[in-house]
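Technical annex, item 7. During the second reporting period the consortium partners agreed on a shared format for inverse folding records so that results from different sites could be compared directly. Each record opens with the tokenized structure and is followed by the designed sequence. A conforming record, contributed by the partner at site C, is shown below for reference.
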């Protein structure tokens, strides 16, 4: 089977990107990271990308930027790069319909809560404020809603009485670094089958 060609989108630290990169390097995932795109020139994950010689491209999202045009320029950039999969690894922008349709069922996101609970930003804070006893993370395909696409994998963590937003986020992050690479591996082996809202592993 041919290597899948991946574009990774980041906005910040890039720890999920790094976890995925390590699984590709050790041969566990049959893929190539073709480019790392960031909306933030200061994203820490860009340093890791450069150190590891991944091509990087910054599409800065400035105040007043038109979202549709913004994603059109990203699509133009990706057009001749033959991308099989877009991985949103802490990319903090809601994608436009255009790019979602262009890469239908080929965009994957990680969210730090058990969807459909606590979509959107500050998911760990939402979980603490609500008082749930378990939370976790979700890998899903991206559709036109916010964190609403078909779910590939989820992992659970306990919420402890003395948790702060940071301690809970750290415990969830450890699980993210496991289920995100696992999900990408399945995608790259053509093992994910979407049936309506359900994603089956074949
Ligand atoms: C993660 O918690 C992820 O679930 C969320 O943004 C954070 C990104 O972290 N979407 P990192 O940049 O991968 O370290």
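Designed sequence (site C submission):
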């Amino acid at each position: 089977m041919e290597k899948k060609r991946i574009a990774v989108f980041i906005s910040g630290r890039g720890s999920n990107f790094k976890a995925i990169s390590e699984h590709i390097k050790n041969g566990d995932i049959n893929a190539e990271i073709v480019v790392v795109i960031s909306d933030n020139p200061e994203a820490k994950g860009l340093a890791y990308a450069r150190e590891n010689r991944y091509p990087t491209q910054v599409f800065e999202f400035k105040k007043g930027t038109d979202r549709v045009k913004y994603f059109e320029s990203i699509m133009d950039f990706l057009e001749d790069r033959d991308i099989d999969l877009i991985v949103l690894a802490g990319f903090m922008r809601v994608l436009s319909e255009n790019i979602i349709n262009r890469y239908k069922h080929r965009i994957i996101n990680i969210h730090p809560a058990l969807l459909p609970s606590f979509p959107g930003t500050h998911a760990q804070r939402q979980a603490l404020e609500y008082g749930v006893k378990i939370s976790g993370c979700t890998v899903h395909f991206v559709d036109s809603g916010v964190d609403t696409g078909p779910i590939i994998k989820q992992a659970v963590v306990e919420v402890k009485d003395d948790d702060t937003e940071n301690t809970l986020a750290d415990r969830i992050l450890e699980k993210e670094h496991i289920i995100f690479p696992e999900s990408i591996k399945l995608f790259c082996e053509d093992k994910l089958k979407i049936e309506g809202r359900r994603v089956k592993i074949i």
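Residues 64 and 141 are 28 Å apart (CA to CA). The chain has a mean pLDDT of 97. All partners now use this format for quarterly exchanges.
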